[in-house]
Amino acid sequence: TPPTIFVITPTYSRFVQKAELTRLSQTFLHVPQLHWVLVEDSPHKTPLVAGLLADSGLAYTHLHTATPKERKLQDGDPSWLKPRGAEQRNEGLRWLREDRRAPQGADSQQGVVYFADDDNTYSIQLFQEMRGTQRVSVWPVGLVGGMRYERPVVEGGKVVRFHTGWRPSRPFPLDMAGFAVSLKAVLANQDACFDGNAPMGFLESSFLQGVVTMEELEPRADNCSKVLVWHTRTEKPKMKREEALQAQGLGSDN
Ligand code: UDP
Ligand code: MN
Predict the structure, then answer these.
(1) Within 10 Å of residue 177's Cβ, how many Cβ atoms?
(2) Fewer beta carbons under 10 A from the terminal one: N or C of the chain?
(3) pLDDT tens-digit profile of 117-148?
(4) 235 is an active site residue
């Protein structure tokens, strides 16, 4: 069997959550040997997410951990102020390390770990590209960082620099959606995790610095020439009329 791809997704309650998770889960249904680790940013598991997972047809693990209040983005804060999803990704890593610690058989430490936000758009081809990850594989991400795409630049089969609009001097100037890590590397580097206090743009670096060097990066997607994942963002729906009806006592409660 091919190595399992563990997809760690932070998610939080808002109007579009069910739509996002429906789209995501139905993309994942097209991918063989995928295990979805869905981590709610919440003090408890919600019935909405539990039900969606139970009906999804996917192999999954349902986790939760609430972002501490002082680290959480408040309504009206600019989105770049604090990193989002750091604690949830770390909770996913914690579960994986615990679950795979004791070898359960030859294949139990074979696998790939990918951090997939719930609002991005993923080609199913991306998962074929990452399946053979030895340590850390990388590829372009579309519609991110104020650019059509960001990407690692490859020369002679190696990543030599990064095409990015902003601070290319960061240790790993790439988006969360632009890399995958082997389960072996996750297990061999027990302390590698996301720093929820990392300054803007340094969250990915905070994790990757503990796992890999630039020279070791494995370029995928035709030497990083193809975009197979897009950092799309969903517009927050307006609820003006809903609220007007609520005020008249005519609102629907689902
Ligand atoms: N997220 C979360 N808690 C929050 C905000 C976001 O768990 O308070 C999750 C969100 O569901 C997504 C990931 O963290 O999977 C990244 O958040 P977002 O997509 O808003 O970040 P951006 O697109 O701005 O990078
Ligand atoms: Mn997003």
Answers:
(1) 25
(2) C
(3) 999 999 999 999 999 999 999 999 999 999 99
(4) no
